[in-house]
Amino acid sequence: MSTMQWCRYRNDQLLAEDVPLAELAAEFGTPTYVYSKAAILAAYREFALAAEGRRALVCYALKANSNLAVIELLARAGAGFDIVSAGELARVLAAGGDAAKVVFSGVGKSEADIRAALAAGVRCFNVESEPELERINAIAGTTGQRARISLRINPDVDAGTHPYISTGLRENKFGIAHERALAAFELAASLPHLEVQGIDCHIGSQITEIAPFLAALDELLELAGRIEAAGISLSHLDLGGGLGINYQGEQPPSRRDLLAAIFARVAAHPLGRRYELMFEFGRAIVGNAGVLLTRIEYLKSTPVKDFAVVDAAMNDLMRPALYDAWHGVLPVLRRDSAQVIYDVVGPVCESGDWLARNRPLAVQAGDLLAIESAGAYGMTMSSNYNSRPRAAEVLVDGDRALLVRHRETLESLYALERRLPPEA
Ligand SMILES: *Cc1c(COP(=O)(O)O)cnc(C)c1O
C-alpha cells in the first residue's frame, strides 16, 4: 500500500483507514505520527507470501520504526528482526519477539551489546570486522557459548541511492572487503567459540531497481563457493534490506517481484539450493504506512516566499534536512480556495528546518497537514533539539485509534538532569 491507499479523502476530510485525522489531532494533539496497522501488515505479508515454501526468514529492520506496537504486530505475523543495538534487542524482547529470530547487525557492537545478545540467544551476529570476531569469541568463551556468526561482506555494488544511505561501496565503513573475505572466514572458523553460519551484505537503502540486489547476490554466491571450497560450510545467505518505496513517484520493484527474482537467481546456481535466505527490510515494510500529522501555526509571507510554519520540525522528521528528502504533503481538510506555493517549515532555529518546499496548498492558519510516507526513519531519528518534546504515536486499525506512545512531557525533557549542588 502507498500512503494514499489507507490515507484518503471522504467528503474532503482526510482519513487514516476509517478515522478522520482531524479527530486524531483533537484527541492526541500535534505533531503526531499516525501508522496504519493494515498497511504495515500488508507490506510484511507481501514479503512473507513471496517467501512461502522457501527456506527463508524475512526480518524487519527495527531502526526504521521501533515502536513496541509495530514490533509486536510484526512479531505476531511471524517476522524475524534485524537489530543494531542492545536497545533494539530490549525492544524486541519487551514486545514479545523471539530472540531466536533476531540477527544483530552493526559495525560497532560493544561488549555490553554482545553480552546482552548472547544472554538472549540471538539467532546470529552479523560481524563486520576481524576485531569484532575476536571480541565475540572472547566473550562467548567466558559464558561457555558458541556464538553463531555471519560475516558482512562489502560487495562494492553501487546501489544508486543517496550517498548517506549507500553502504555497499568500497569507501564505506561497512562490512569486510571482498578480497579479504576468505581470510576473515578462515579466522572465524579457527576461533573455538564461534560457529560460522552465513554470509551477509546490505548495500544501501531506498534502492529502486532489482539489479543491484542481484549483483550483490552473485558476489555472495561466488564467495560462498570459495568459502565452501576452503572447507567452511555455510547455512544461510543474508541479503540485507534496502528496498525503496514511493515517496515522489519512484517506481521500485514490488516486494514480490524482488523476492521472486532473488529466489530464481539462487535456484539457478549450483550452490544456491543449499542455503536458507534471510532479508532485513525496514523502509519497505513501514515507510508508506505512516504519516506525520501537524498543524499550521502561521502563514507567513515574505517578499520572495510564502511559508506555512507548522508545529512539526526537523527534530520530528529529520529526513528532509539530512538527505534533502521529499515527502508529500496533504491538507487534512480539502478547501476549494486558490492554492498558494508554500515552503512548509518548522519552528526550530535552523535554516535546514523544513519539511517540504514549493508546494501548492489551499490552506489557512490552524489547518492540519499530513506529511506522507513518514513511517520509516521518522520517529526513530527524532530528537529533543530545541527542547521540543517528541511527538505522540498512534496506530489506527479500521475505525479504532490506539495511542502507542505518549507525547513527551516538558518535565521528561530534563528528568535525567541534575541542578548544581548549592556550593558549586
Ligand atoms: C538499515 C539497515 C537495514 C534496513 O534498511 P532499509 O533500507 O530500511 O530496508 C537492513 N540491514 C542493515 C544492516 C541495516 O543497516
Can you tell me about this structure?
The protein is α/β, with parallel strands linked by helices. The protein has 2 domains: 3-36 and 288-413, Lyase, Ornithine Decarboxylase, Chain A, domain 1 (Beta Barrel); 105-281, TIM Barrel (Alpha-Beta Barrel), CATH 3.20.20.10. The chain contains 13 helices and 21 strands. It has helices at 3-6, 21-28, 37-50, 68-77, 86-94, 111-120, 130-143, 181-190, 211-229, 255-267, 283-286, 319-323, 410-413, and strands spanning 7-10, 13-16, 19-20, 32-36, 56-61, 80-83, 102-104, 124-127, 147-154, 176-177, 194-200, 236-238, 276-281, 290-301, 306-310, 329-331, 340-345, 354-361, 368-371, 392-397, 400-405. It starts with a helix and ends in an 11-residue tail after the last helix. Pyridoxal-5'-phosphate binds at residues 61, 63-64, 82, 105, 202, 205, 240-243, 280-284, 376.
CATH superfamily of the largest domain: Alanine racemase
Counting DSSP E segments of at least 2 residues, the number of strands comes to 21
Structural class category = alpha/beta
Q: Specify the number of helices.
A: 13
Quote the average pLDDT: 95
Query: What are the distinct ligands in this entry?
Result: pyridoxal-5'-phosphate
> Measured on Cα atoms, how large is the radius of gyration?
23 Å
Q: How many domain units? A: 2
Percent helix range: 25-40%
